[in-house]
Amino acid sequence: MPFAGNRLNFAPITDPHFYGFAVPAVLLLGISKSGFGAGFGSLAVPLMALAVSVPQAAAILMPVLLLMDLLGIAAFRRNFDRTLLLFLLPCGLAGTVIGALLFSRLSSHTVAGIVGVFTLLFLAQRLLFPPRPNDPLPSRWVGALLTTISGFTSFIAHAGGPPVNAYVVPLKLAPLAFTATMAYFFFAVNLSKWIPYAWLGLLDWRNFATSLVLLPLAPLGVWIGIRIARRIDPVWFYRFVYSGMLLTGLKLTWDGFIG
Fold it and tell me: CA-CA distance, 28 to 251, in Å (whole number)?
């Protein structure tokens, strides 16, 4: 069965308190999926978790993520870096397998805290030791490790952006190439989650009905981000990427170890 749990409850969530958090979360996710403000998308689950549990928030966002990924691919289908994508995909998918196997053993808050600390350490390193033109690019083994972590954290809490960004951002791709490559990467990663999520009992009809209510917001968020990403200067593009990662790191660290 593709859905488990409350199989006969087709009614979506109606609590206005939930939508007060869910609507901005989905819009942030859409803007992040377009490439602009990359990293902000990792705030979606923590934001929605202020109204529902983390697993339920992750399950509700699954169909929304799939639509956003398809929209991102359609918008940037000619701009992705093929060589980089072929390197990232096996590592990211391996991370989702690890996430599925360890899901019941690890608290999503613990994973969120680890991702948050890692993100802040990466930003501190970039601030204290800013890159120079002759600096070597990150090694492939570092990229493989970070991308595997990205697949893992994506499975646990849809927070795969910061780890893979820590590898891809220093490569200094053009904004459109960055956005397109990430769109294809996360489409494959998010698609791979469906069967494990159903197997773990995270998908049910009430969550799916709630996803359908939120689905119209997905194109709006992606459209807003695409409009900005196509017009922004690369310097400002990466400033917003770093800003998104900073806010994400602070939020995830707070949720994991303090809140």
Answer: 14
Q: pTM value?
A: 0.75
Per-residue pLDDT reduced to its tens digit, 201-259: 888 888 889 999 999 998 888 787 777 767 777 677 667 767 766 877 787 788 778 76
**Cα→Cα distances 13→64, 94, 210, 214, Å:** 15, 33, 6, 11
What is the Cα–Cα distance from 153 to 114, expressed in whole angstroms?
9
Alpha helices for 129-158 (secondary structure H): 140-157
**Strand spans (E) along 166-246:** none
Backbone angles phi, psi at 106, to 5 degrees: -115, 135
Q: Rounded distance, CA 199 to CA 181, Å?
A: 29
Domain spans of the chain?
Answer: 16-258
> In terms of residues, how long is the chain?
259
